[in-house]
L,D-TPase catalytic domain-containing protein
Amino acid sequence: MKRFELIVGVAILMILSTFGLSVHAYQKQVVRQEKVELQKTAVKKSLPKSTSKDDKLAADEANATTTSKDSKMNPIDWKKPSEKKDYPDLTKYPNAYLKVSISKQRVYVMNGNKVLYTMYASTGSKDSPTPTGTFQIQAERGEFFYNASSKEGAKYWVSFKDHGIYLFHTVPTDKNGNFIEEEANQLGKEAKSHGCVRLAVPDAKWIYDKVPEGMKVEIH
């Protein structure tokens, strides 16, 4: 009898032990699963809610940046300044210089690598190209000139090469100082000059009034 009770007791202990281990294993599995779920939730919260939505936002931001750049420029009008903002105060930028882009038909007022102002331009045609390289604003400047051989003149001219040969100036005029609209309307669109750099009237006047002798000019 005692032996039977002993066997039964051992069996009960084994069952309880096994059950205890099973419960412990189950509890460990639950804890492990909860940790996994928490990790998934944390990762999910850290990720964007919608990739497509983010892509759209990124595209909108890119478009906004482009639009913002374009919106800084007035529509091409040779009678008006090229940009909607004020011209830069060159007294604040002693190292400013002018960069002419033949490929883009633009003149940039630069400070280091930063563009302070952008101007529409028309550089030399294929038959009379604008010289490329590095130059300086020269002493010669004036309010008006007329070239009888080309039958064109211009206002607010400033020399940058060969002392009165290669100039920044307005879109062209006739001998009476009247602007030639057919030529002026090519500003910012086509290289049409005889080697000089044509500009909108206010832009040329600003260079005439504000750009000092000796300022660097880069043309590429």
